[in-house]
Specification:
four-stranded antiparallel beta sheet; 16% helix; alpha+beta; single chain; five-stranded mixed beta sheet; 9 strands
Length: 194
């Protein structure tokens, strides 16, 4: 389902823990990290799509999270031609997204990357709020910055007091402990349009 301009309606999910660190997932069989995201199906609201994608991609249900906020409007990014499947080139331009900021109220062990037969991620970790801007794929960087910036107004001070890393600043410490879940070798790769 594309709009008149060639953008696919989509949701993005920024999931926070109690320390205001964000959930960061590694795409299946790639060295590419991103936030959970996915398309809005015909007849779904953005919130319904967000809860469906949350469960499909990382195994969390509504009782595991609390909605803190969402972006006011659609945020758009264009996908470079070499990432677009040949059959939709000329029609598909990219994604338009409503971003949700969620607070994890469940436990880390509630995350299940293998809840479907086509997993999106094969590893995950908690990361400082602003760090994804330095490592996300280039064509998504601006929309990530817009979403993180707009939704940062909903952040509470973390309970354990780690310092906040401002946009564009580099973290002075190594990445957080990574939680990994191994997938079977025959797991399907993620589609290009996610």
């Amino acid at each position: 389902m594309l709009d008149r301009e060639g953008f696919r309606p989509n949701v993005g999910i920024i999931l926070l823990n109690a320390n205001n660190e964000v959930w960061w997932g590694k795409r299946v069989r790639e060295h590419s990290w991103q936030f959970p995201q996915g398309g809005i199906k015909h007849g779904e609201t953005p919130e319904q799509a967000m809860f469906r994608e949350l469960e499909e991609e990382i195994g969390l249900r509504a009782e595991h999270v609390k909605i803190i906020g969402r972006t006011r409007d659609w945020l758009r990014y264009e996908v470079p031609d070499h990432f677009i499947k040949r059959e939709v080139r000329g029609h598909y331009r990219g994604q338009k997204q409503i971003w949700f900021l969620l607070r994890m109220v469940g436990r880390d062990c509630d995350v299940n990357l293998r809840g479907t037969s086509h997993p999106e991620f094969d590893a995950w970790r908690w990361h400082d709020y602003w760090v994804p801007l330095d490592v996300v794929i280039e064509f998504k960087r601006e929309v990530y910055q817009q979403a993180l910036q707009e939704l940062s107004r909903f952040l509470n001070r973390p309970s354990h007091g780690p310092r906040r890393v401002e946009p564009g600043a580099r973290a002075a410490h190594p990445p957080k402990k990574q939680t990994q879940q191994a997938l079977s070798p025959n797991a399907a790769p993620a589609p290009d349009t996610k």
